[in-house]
Amino acid sequence: MLTRENLNNASRIVIKVGTSTLTHATGKLNLLRIERLARELSDFANQGKQIILVSSGAVGAGMDRLGLKEKPKTIPEKQAAAAVGQGILLHIYEKMFGEYGQIVAQVLLTRADSVNRKRYTNSRNTLMALLNQGVIPIINENDAVAIDELKIGDNDTLSAMVASIVDADLLIILSDIEGVYTANPQQDKNATLISEISEITPEVEALAGGPGTLQGTGGMYTKIQAAKIAVNSGVTMVIASGGQDGIIREIIQGNQVGTIFVSRENRLQIRKRWLAFGAGVSGKVIVDKGCEQALVKDGSSLLAAGIITVEGEFELGNTISIMSGCGRELARGITNYNADDLHKIKGAHTQEITAILGCKPYDEVVHRDNLVVLI
Description:
- It is a single chain.
- This protein is of the alpha/beta class.
- It has helices spanning about 20, 30-45, 60-65, 75-100, 110-115, 115-130, 155-165, 200-205, 220-230, 245-250, 270-280, 290-295, 340-345, 355; strands spanning about 10-15, 50-55, 105-110, 135-140, 170-175, 195, 235-240, 260, 280-285, 305-310, 320-325, 330-335, 370-375.
- It has 2 domains: about 5-270, Carbamate kinase; about 280-375, Roll (Archaeosine Trna-guanine Transglycosylase, Chain: A, domain 4), CATH 2.30.130.
- The model is unreliable at about 210-220 (pLDDT under 50).
């Protein structure tokens, strides 16, 4: 398990850079910063570390080439800008990394690559083959073809998914904010940076606000969600400011910069990792205290008796989220019942299911073999 003291031991590292790190205030690419990034990552590659770069900036690069003054508002316009920009961005990376003797490869991913288990496995195999040949994969969401239903949603989430897929040791997310604060630093001058987060509690999630809320700063909501994926996949994650020169070296040397999320000691099996983070979540159930104890402490299956509320529309075989009464996500798993049947049997004992539904396909709503505990 990696902590501040031994981050230099990380051998496989995923670095995510946001648009704010790669561009000027004008929206045009910051070539000096991209060059410094390429030099720094190339030096780590020369040390024998395997490097994966998850990069934003394709839409911005396309906007510049197309002469657009403001960010496109419709999905087709964004996709057109991304289609133009992806080639430009890769050409710049290829030129700059090439100056330092590194080979790069572009890999474009969509949500479908993580939802479909076969494509999830294929993505892993491709990335591992590139790393084993000394190539630096440069990854972005395939904005040119992805639509809202297929988009992974944010490059923070994408970087965590990639780190999970390739069994990375460390994920570094570079942003326009230095890390997680005790309050919104734009509104509270007394807000202080949290150096280390060992457990992502509801209180930690609350610090980030919700998606699209004024409370959330620097896209912190998506970064906390990315941290949940990373730490549960056995990956230590650091959030830091991408505007600081040499920040990646500072992080890997163990200096007190940014916020570190220490990974859980157990690394989920590939199948369970896909189940928890690759498969799309179709709905959720809220369970009582006794059920929460049985799931988290005892490793039990989810039974109907412990379910208080059922939310969403889902079918047999879909992945659902299992929540506590206070709104904390406890686990995810593949349900043996659809939402309609689950509404009918929630709170019922196993022996009562036949009388309610006319049959009992399964004793368990989610069997423990198809369940991943997230806390």
